[in-house]
Every structure is written in C-alpha cells, then in structure tokens.
Amino acid sequence: MTPPPGTRSASTLGRVDYEDAFVIDVCKPSALSAEQWMRTILEGAPAAVRLQLLSGWSALGLRVSLSKADRSVLGWQIRTAEPDFVLLGAESRLGMPAELLLRRETDRLLFATFVRHDNALVRALWAPVVPTHVRMVQELLARVGSDVRS
C-alpha cells in the first residue's frame, strides 16, 4: 500500500522515487518501543534470513555496517528514534539511498520503505527487485504478528 498521508514527511531523502507500507496487527504494540520492534523484526530474524538481507542490501549498493560502535539496526543507521517511531537509513554506493520506518500505532505496526533513485541505472536495478522486497518484508512482519496488509 502507499504510505498513509504524512508518513513520507518523516523521510530525510529529499525526494522519494519508491515507497511502500505494510501494517501488521500485534498484541500490545506498546510493549516495545518502535526501535525495539524494528530490532525484533530485523535482528530477530533467523541467521539465514539476516544473511540474505545483508547480501541483498549489499548487492543493491546500500552501505550497511554491523559495527558495534555506531547506533544501527542490522547495519542500518538510526536517523530518528522516539518511543512510537524509528527511522533507519542507508546511503548507497550506486545512488539508491533508502530508509526504513516503523511507527507504533494503537493496535498495529506500520512499516514503510522509502527509496531514492539518483540515476537510470538504479531505477532499472530496483524495478525487478520490488517483488522480492515485498515478499521479504511480508515474511519478516509475519514473524511478529498476524494479518500483514500491504
């Protein structure tokens, strides 16, 4: 689904060329902060899935770093973190910076992706990846809740 009104304004990319959003029903969203939910979704995935994610992001030119020295979630830099909202970002070697957003709501979580295409090459690279991206996000979210909707 297209992110709800106002969601894109959280992005720091300046221009967004691709965006999507998913909502997932969870019991007691308030039990964890938005950052803790994002960690549960990404870092709580099985090791094989985390490796697949890191490999895919690297192939897309995203600069993700698993350094313990910086504030990150599975290599994505934390750009903003509040109890109900977290925004992660990754710069790109190829010209395709991206952001992941998680917003905690009353009875569900909203997960959104924002991508900027700085050139025709990355636009062509991203298009065939979208179905895999959507499937992976749905699978990650299904691990923590029920009724994933895009």
CATH top level label: Alpha Beta
- Give the count of structural domains: 1
Number of discrete helical segments: 4
Report the mean per-residue pLDDT as an integer: 93
Biggest sheet details: 7 strands, antiparallel
* CATH fold descriptor: Alpha-D-Glucose-1,6-Bisphosphate, Chain A, domain 4
What is the H/E order? Answer: EHHEEEEEHHE
Our measurement of the CA-to-CA distance between the termini, rounded to an integer number of angstroms, reads 5 Å
Organism: Mycolicibacterium tusciae
Protein name: DUF2867 domain-containing protein
Could you characterize the architecture of this molecule?
The longest helix is centred in the middle third of the chain and has 13 residues, at 47-59. Helices cover 28% and strands 28% of the residues. Strands 2-3-4-5-6-1-7 form a 7-stranded antiparallel sheet. The chain has one domain: Alpha-D-Glucose-1,6-Bisphosphate, Chain A, domain 4. It has helices at 34-42, 47-59, 120-126, 130-142, and strands at 18-25, 72-73, 76-82, 85-90, 98-104, 108-115, 146-149. The mean pLDDT is 93. By secondary structure, it is α+β, with helices and mostly antiparallel strands. It has 4 helices and 7 strands.
Main traits of this protein?
DUF2867 domain-containing protein; alpha+beta; 7 strands; 150 residues; single chain; Alpha-D-Glucose-1,6-Bisphosphate, Chain A, domain 4; globular
